[in-house]
Amino acid sequence: MTFPSPLPAELAVLLTDDDAAPFWEMTRQRRLCFQQCSDCGTFRQPPGPLCPNCRSRATTWTETPGAGTVFTFTTVVHPVHPAVVDFVPYLVALIEFPDVPGIRLVSNLVEVEPGAVSIGMSVEVAWDEMSDEVVIPRFRPAA
Amino acid sequence: MSLRDKTCIVGIGTTPFFRRGGSGTRTEIDLMCEATLNAVADAGLSVDDIDGFSFYHNGFDAGRLSSVLGIPELRWSSVVSGGGGGSQGAIANAAAAVAAGYADVVLCVKALKATGPGGRRIGRPRLRDQREPAGGPDLDFNYPFGLMSPGQSFAMMARRHMHQYGTTTRQFGEVAVTTRLHASRNPAALHRTPITLADHDASRVIADPLRLLDFCLETEGGTALIVTSAERARSLRQTPVHIRAAAQGGSGAWGQGIYTHQMPGDEYTSSGHRPLAARLYSAAGLGPEDIDVAEMYDHFSPLVIMQLEDYGFCAVGEGGPFVEDGGTRWDTGRLPVNTHGGNLSEVYLLGFTHTIEAVRQLRGTSTSQVQDAEVALVTSGPGVNPTSALILRR
């Protein structure tokens, strides 16, 4: 990690369940993977037990290099929880990936000023180690 | 089978409206009872006549309410999921229950305290050890990224709408200004001092591009409506307001909407009401040109613009210019919207205040009366699934 974490570790405590656990197990290894139907190839997010397209239960986790684009974003200025008082303003964005069609990931933009962000800008994954257990995928402008 | 015009809203009632904390230690059931007594009196009925309850969201217990009110026999009770999206759906269910003969007189009731159990403010996120089970692991994809409130999510939708259609923050401001203008004429509204576009632009940023004046109020109070058959309504005290048609739901892919942000294609920049609008107009045998006044759930100003598009009052993408041209003003607009002052300025109680205002319009008793109003559209909270909507007629 070369950037200060944009949010406190207090927020990055995960509940997970059987469906979502692989996502977070792989982020711990700095791998960004999404759930994909083994039968029809449809991606889904958040993870779930069934493909909404063909209803197959057969699932694979497909890795992406994490090169994406900003679909939309907001600069959060008002802290809605005491835990983030010292962290505002921060950037929340929806990221789309050309190799993972049909889904978006909620994440943050780091190493960029709010005024320099635009919809459609290219970003790359930036791993944020919040604890021994939790590594969060955030995004910086593509090199 | 059609429910068209088979049932009516015959009574409306509220408590006084309170700012956050203003109702003190009063309980939600106390607020519900006060609103209920007012609605029953308005209708010219007795509490003894009530034999059904229709709810949405949370904060109630049918068994306790029936005993506290002294209901002789509860014959039917139901609840709609979907937060504020369920409000008009609760009235739709009441209409269906009356039409089906499950109940004769249904109480639709909702109270809201802006500070919940343990002093938690509405909308404040709960971290891991406090999360509701229903919040579940899906919030793992929001909270670690600091996405923790509806306003932040609607800010992202608003920005995308601006990007796709050229909508401006000035147009969001126009929604706030117009709504406040209507509130200034309503003695019950909590915020009655008119504002200008400059005031909107000077209000502090909460989640860019949304500012404080784009957000609804944090308020408290109780609301109640009485639904019965059109036949019985004819012998009651008030001008009957017919439930012309109702629709609930949303597209399946909308999913958890503002929480998961996977809404497909152009739906991302919509209120989620588009599929309902088609069904609602079809069930009513009416179209947008027939609507005289619209009371649209306005928890966030951009969502009024999106609903204008979704309900066909203008083309998709043209909601911004529609409001900027004064299209939603009560006296001169093409479609007066939120003539009571809405959630932005009157009070935010999760939905029934919009229905109550539509009833007033069709009785001819609004403080911003639309002349000869005969048909009204009422919508529920956008962003969730199911949401819901009604068309009412005099």
Question: Would you write up a description of this structure?
Answer:
The complex is a heterodimer of chains A (143) and B (394). Chain A is mainly β. Chain A has one domain. Chain A contains 1 helix and 8 strands. A 5-stranded antiparallel sheet of chain A has the order 6-5-4-7-8. In chain B, helix 5 packs across helix 9. Chain B is built from 12 helices and 12 strands. In chain B, a hairpin with a 7-residue loop joins strand 11 and strand 12. In chain B, the strands form 2 sheets. In chain B, strands 1, 2, 3, 4, 5, 8, 9, 10, 11 and 12 form a 10-stranded mixed sheet that branches. A two-stranded antiparallel sheet of chain B has the order 6-7. With 394 residues, chain B is an alpha+beta fold. Chain B has one domain: Thiolase/Chalcone synthase (Peroxisomal Thiolase, Chain A, domain 1, 3-Layer(aba) Sandwich), CATH 3.40.47.10. Classes of the chains: A mainly beta (143), B alpha+beta (394). The interface between A and B is large, with 45 and 41 residues.
Strands, helices and their partners?
The complex is a heterodimer of chains A (143) and B (394).
Chain A: H1 21-28, E1 32-37, E2 43-44, E3 59-64, E4 67-76, E5 90-97, E6 100-109, E7 122-129, E8 135-141
Antiparallel strand pairs in A: 1-2, 1-3, 4-5, 4-7, 5-6, 7-8
Chain B: E1 7-14, E2 18-19, H1 28-43, E3 52-56, H2 62-69, E4 76-80, H3 87-100, E5 106-112, H4 150-165, H5 169-183, H6 197-202, E6 205-208, E7 210-211, E8 219-229, H7 230-233, E9 241-249, H8 274-284, E10 293-295, H9 301-310, H10 319-324, H11 342-346, H12 352-363, E11 375-379, E12 387-393
Parallel strand pairs in B: 3-4, 3-5, 10-11
Antiparallel strand pairs in B: 1-8, 1-9, 2-8, 5-8, 6-7, 9-12, 11-12
Helix pairs in contact in B: 5-9
